């Protein structure tokens, strides 16, 4: 048994809303989708949030392959570059990796290069068009897959230079949430969030640049 997880994040500068989507395929059991949205964030945080949500949807005893079109995220996770910001999400991803029996494999793929990548892109983009809080977690009966992590931009963080992904989405108020989604959470804005202590991973070598 194995999981193939395709992730994507998006951010609309006009609406100041970010969204993430993860298409989670479990061999023999079909596909499920995880998604969410947040204000005052960055495209990089949305890429990382999508990966974390995808990992949280997988079972630890299974083999997992994660696909993302974010070279920023993949390079950090694979130890090819060092994270300078977004350390809460990066540490949470490494901590989650430690919980798997077999270390997940992280692979970069070009944007929209597979049906799953196109669907993840569509979900993330759609999340930037919906009003924050348009759906409550209780209405779907589950979580967005990143409990305990505030994906708003920490005040001290500034996004590392990277090309901004343009959002291709329908006008506000159109379209329906993806069928079969695990959940879309109304992630609290910064003033409503209590202080969160993020578990750090012991595998610090993953965050170090290769010599």
TrEMBL record:
SUPFAM superfamilies: Ribonuclease H-like
InterPro entries (alphabetical): RNaseH-like_sf, RNaseH_domain, RNaseH_sf
Region ranges (Disordered): 137-211
Domain RNase H type-1: 1-129
Residue ranges with Acidic residues bias: 147-159
Compositional bias annotation for Basic residues: 201-211
GO terms assigned for molecular function: nucleic acid binding; RNA-DNA hybrid ribonuclease activity
Name of the protein: RNase H type-1 domain-containing protein
Upper lineage: unclassified sequences, metagenomes, ecological metagenomes
């Amino acid at each position: 048994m194995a999981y193939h997880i395709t992730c994507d994040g998006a951010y609309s500068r006009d609406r100041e809303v970010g969204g993430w989507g993860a298409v989670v395929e479990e061999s023999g059991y079909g596909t499920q989708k995880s998604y969410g949205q947040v204000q005052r964030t960055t495209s990089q945080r949305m890429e990382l949030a999508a990966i974390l949500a995808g990992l949280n949807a997988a079972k630890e005893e299974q083999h997992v392959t994660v696909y993302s079109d974010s070279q920023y995220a993949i390079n950090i996770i694979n130890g090819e570059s060092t994270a300078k910001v977004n350390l809460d999400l990066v540490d949470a991803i490494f901590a989650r990796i430690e919980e798997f029996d077999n270390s997940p494999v992280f692979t970069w793929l070009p944007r929209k290069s597979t049906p799953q990548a196109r669907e993840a892109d569509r979900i993330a983009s759609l999340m930037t068009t919906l009003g924050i809080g348009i759906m409550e977690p209780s209405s779907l009966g589950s979580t967005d897959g990143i409990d305990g992590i505030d994906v708003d931009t920490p005040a001290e963080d500034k996004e590392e230079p990277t090309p901004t992904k343009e959002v291709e989405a329908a006008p506000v108020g159109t379209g329906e949430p993806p069928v079969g989604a695990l959940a879309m959470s109304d992630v609290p804005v910064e003033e409503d969030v209590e202080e969160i202590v993020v578990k750090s991973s012991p595998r610090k070598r993953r965050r170090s640049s290769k010599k």
